Amino acid sequence: MSVHFNGIMRHGRVRGVQGLSLEIGGLHPTPPIGGCIEIISPSRRKIHAEVVSVRDGSAMAVARCGLEGVFVGARVEDAGPVVLHPCAAWLGRVVDPMGRPLDGRGPLPRGPLAQPLRAVPPEAGTRARLGPRIDLGVRAMDAFATCRRGQRLGLFAASGVGKSSLMSMLARHADCDVAVIGLVGERGRELREFIEDDLGPQGLARSVVVCATSDSAPLMRRDAALAAMAVAEHFRDLGKRVLLMMDSVTRFALALREIGLSAGEPPATRGFPPSVFAELPRLLERAGPGPEGCAGSITGLFTVLVEGDDHDEPVADAVRGILDGHVVLDRRIGEGGRYPAVDVLRSLSRTVPGCLEPPERAILARARRILSLHRDMADMVRLGAYRAGSDPAVDEAVRLAPLIEDVLRQGKDEAGSVAGAFAALAVAMGPGA
């Protein structure tokens, strides 16, 4: 959409193209950071772009699609900001970051309210507190990383450890009104597999899926995360209990890195420019309880790809410091045949003390103590260096740890609850639980 001033169309020209970025001149005043423009190609195709840098009267922009056909001198026009119009009819649909359908089921209805991709979180002083604990439907998380309504948890795992299967279990079984699933940089062939096999009709019926595949421009991959958050905020403002799942924050950060480097930012921490670590909290802080008096909330579950099982790499370290807890998926546990492959000893929820009853806290403490001791002694027992009867605590750990592992083992179609998880642990550990 072009912008007119006193009947005169405001436009400029492309001055240069380098890599992913475009140099734009002739727009007065120069568009602000985040401003949207359109480049008119010779075929009259409009290429949407966003201003990422301004200097010396010129603007640097990054396009939301390929730059094929763009040439020096191409016409540039101002465009309106990207906004979404979500509504209840979006449930069960798959959309791209611009709000266009990806599922081949026809156009999407437009809701009456415009939802911008970027928004500020509720003021900290007037934000509601976390709600009661919720059933996520996964026993390992319900017991060892109990989640409260409006909490934000990180799911940390390397590739191929079962993140998608775990997300599908949460989408189908978690106690929520609406699930919003943001797939950032997803493999194209896996979208239908995730929707049809993992999510299924039951999970999709109450979900909105926002997807930008790995071959999308970095701006679209970034906007997939922003659009998913915007859709979640829409339903939160309607008083809904929203479960937002984003896979993955790491790919969101990689898209930000491409954009930042194209804008001329210097690479800093392991090649990530400083703007990446400024943008992460702006996104993640938008999830959580709504403002005081709003019945809605956004419970956020954000996956983080841990390259080479390095949990201290910059993105993982930054995200861990922002969120309210973390759940670690371990490849060795999955290779041992126990799914979900949650490492319960390395997972924690920072809100657990306030949402468990005293008997439940005692069960959890004993289960952690047994599993920790069993892990410490596993090699000695396996090698025959430990003699049964030498230590009653070790004997108990050797006997009970496999029973606790059986409780944590759960099929993809099997639903759980917090109360059920603690009841199963109490039965597995017997007297003293």
UniProtKB/TrEMBL annotation:
Q: What's the catalysed reaction?
A: ATP + H2O + cellular proteinSide 1 = ADP + phosphate + cellular proteinSide 2
- From which domain of life does this come? Bacteria
Family annotation (Pfam families): ATP-synt_ab, T3SS_ATPase_C
Query: Which Gene3D superfamilies does the UniProt entry name for this protein?
Result: 3.40.50.12240
Q: Where in the cell is it found?
A: Cytoplasm
Q: Which NCBIfam families match?
A: fliI_yscN (TIGR01026)
This protein is called what?
Answer: FliI/YscN family ATPase
Q: What organism is the protein native to?
A: Roseomonas populi
